[in-house]
Design brief:
By secondary structure, the protein is α/β, with parallel strands linked by helices. About 35% of the residues lie in helices and about 25% in strands. The strands form 2 sheets. It has an 8-stranded mixed β-sheet with strand order 5-4-3-2-1-12-13-14, with helices on both faces.
Length: about 270
């Protein structure tokens, strides 16, 4: 199989634990693009928290793409054009806020390049650190959020958040709900996940699912792992998910992405 698209989760997959792209991964990603393979960064991160990585990897030079907010936004890197966006209406964000207050978890969203929260917590600080975006603490969340947003996150200690997640799924069937880290419960509009947006992009580029490799490590990657012709976990994948992939490669700290390219893209070119 000659693969035409390589889709990469970022945190704990492409990025090392200190949020860097290794030299080997950088080299292989550029080489894949030189061979005509689209490289797509697919992350729960907001768009601003992905752009510098995408440019460093040459996605803008090779006409590649990013899927941000778990697929709620698709951006063409060469032109900077947003080619798809699906938002949550303010009244639904307000309902999520009421739920978060009732269940004593933090809620954040994103407006005008900032993270919006009603208070600080270690988990809110982690989100600010990962994204590098300014954190704005507001006294009135509902009054602040008066226009659509693309994603919300509930944040709390993992074992408690898992219980909250089950309750939320039972009462909020009109939203897509997933986890990117054990302490991040991510909420998007119904029908939004990485696979759904990947399918939209693939159709636009006339690429079949069988021609796609997807690489991830967490629950919010599962849909694209199952959608792609070759679904790959890095070795630090959540244990409960290991059996869902076609292949498991080295961990995020040991150049797993480079291994994928060398085995399934570069290897094919050599054989051809």
């Amino acid at each position: 199989m000659q693969y035409k698209m390589l889709v990469l989760d970022m945190d704990d997959t492409l990025l090392t634990d200190d949020h860097q792209v290794s030299v080997r991964n950088q080299k292989m990603i550029r080489l894949a693009q030189e061979m005509g393979v689209y490289v797509v960064l697919a992350s729960g991160r907001p768009t601003p928290a992905m752009l510098s990585y995408a440019k460093d990897l040459g996605l803008d030079q090779f006409g590649s793409y990013i899927l941000s907010y778990n697929g709620a936004v698709i951006t063409a890197m060469q032109s900077g054009e947003v080619i798809f966006e699906q938002s949550i209406q303010p009244q639904h964000v307000h309902e999520l806020y009421d739920f978060s207050v009732a269940h004593q978890v933090h809620l954040v969203t994103y407006l005008d390049g900032e993270i919006i929260a009603t208070g600080a917590s270690p988990y809110v600080e982690i989100e600010a650190h990962i994204t590098g975006m300014p954190l704005r603490i507001v006294s009135d969340f509902k009054a602040t959020v008066q226009k659509p947003v693309v994603k919300c996150i509930m944040l709390e200690e993992p074992s408690y958040l898992a219980k909250v997640a089950q309750t939320l799924k039972n009462v909020c069937s009109h939203k897509s709900i997933t986890t990117s880290k054990p302490f991040f419960l991510e909420i998007m509009e119904w029908g939004i996940d990485k696979a759904a947006s990947l399918a939209r992009l693939a159709a636009q580029l006339n690429i079949d699912a069988s021609e796609i490799i997807a690489v991830g490590n967490a629950s919010n990657d599962l849909s694209m792992i199952q959608y792609a012709g070759l679904g790959v976990w890095v070795d630090n994948v959540e244990e409960s998910l290991r059996h869902h992939a076609d292949v498991i490669v080295a961990s995020n700290n040991n150049d797993g992405v480079a291994e994928v390219i060398e085995r399934f893209i570069l290897g094919e070119q050599i054989e051809a």
